[in-house]
Amino acid sequence: MEYLPVEVIGNILSHLAAARDVVTASATCRKWREACRKHLQSLSFNSDDWPIYRDLTTSRLEILITQTIFQITGLQGLSILMDDVDEFSASTVIAWLMYTRETLRWLFYNVRTTPNVNILDLCGRQKLEMLVLAHNSITGVEPNYQRFSCLKSLSLSYVSISALDLNLLLTACPRIEIFSLVNPEIVMSDAQVMIELNSPTLKSIYVEAISLDKFILEADSLENLHLKDCALELFELTGKGALKQFKIDDVSVLHLDIGETVDELEIVDVSSFTIIWSKFYQMISKSSKLRKLRFWDVVFDDEDEIVDLETVALCFPKLSHLALNYDLRDDLRDGVLHYGVHGSSPLQNVITLELGWTVVNDLFADWVAGLLKRCPNLKKLVIHGVVSDAKTHEECQMLANFTSAIVKLMRKYMHVDVQFDYI
Hints:
- This protein is an alpha/beta fold.
- The protein has helices at 6-16, 19-26, 30-39, 52-55, 58-69, 90-100, 119-123, 163-171, 277-284, 309-315, 328-334, 362-373, 393-410, and strands spanning 42-46, 77-81, 88-89, 106-110, 113-114, 130-134, 153-157, 160-162, 178-182, 185-187, 194-198, 204-208, 211-218, 224-228, 231-238, 245-249, 252-257, 267-275, 292-300, 321-326, 352-357, 380-385, 417-422.
- The strands form 4 sheets. A 15-stranded parallel sheet has the order 1-2-4-6-7-9-12-14-16-18-19-20-21-22-23.
- Strand 19, helix 10 and strand 20 (321-326) form a beta-alpha-beta unit.
- The radius of gyration is 27 Å and the shape is globular.
- This is F-box/LRR-repeat protein.
């Protein structure tokens, strides 16, 4: 180790990242201390990494962080995540950012201060490429002054911001490609809660825990759209049809529109969602490049609706991964099998099949058998199931019958890798 160049040692310390580990390692010898001072690239202060952070007084913690940061030159990555820690002095935090901002490429910032520190003022017009903000307040965005010309990734969690400032912030990031918005407090000036975002460079957006009347997104280059745990009356995406991945998880939305041009769509993942199949199918029916289709815990708005695998096979010829899960109790009561296996067209390219139940019964094994017949080139089968802790004799017998039926069935498909995932 004594023959390693200081630059290499600095790279090793940068992979440690956690300030406690970096300081401990750099105490090895003078050469390692020099590597820490001049060649350390990233540094992290995280209250979850070291419980002692929470035991220190705020003033003592401020001194500790200040002493560590001010010994290092040329820092490119700084992470300060202080959950469950009392408020810091704004002047101290400003000093940390002023000292490092000219060389920083990424900043993770979750620090409560009095008063609030304006990160945009401090880090705008610098070289930041990634910015992650949490528990912060953003007001009065000025795109011309608070400009992030190098920023490609922006994440906002539990921030307070107006709908106007949110759009202006994206405007201030002319090269942004990745945007994450989690549980924001949207400050509105009128009764209707609405967000309109516009970004020609955005490629991926993740939105979680947001409640709005309208969410309108204009993004010509968007490839990845993920909505989770949201309540929306209207969600509308307009663009030039670059979308490749669409994922929606536990979302309530009355009107959903992802645009007419979905020719590039490759992945559709829908879970915990009430679906009107005819409208949803119409939205994705032209996606001839679709490779993965996942419907998990989906509730059908019309009890008589059927997702016909014949239609799926004909419209999505490149489909290689199919995942279906539903509650068979509704099927038994109404006599409707929501995922029908009628027809003769094979799912020729499906090599991975995931199937699941909420309550197992005799019908499930027959359904699995029908699906296997439709997948001549299948290589992997994953069966997910829910098995209750308190089982009646009838439930135990049903599970035993199902297991026997599946074992017998899979003897016909020895080339298929079978996995069971029970909870």
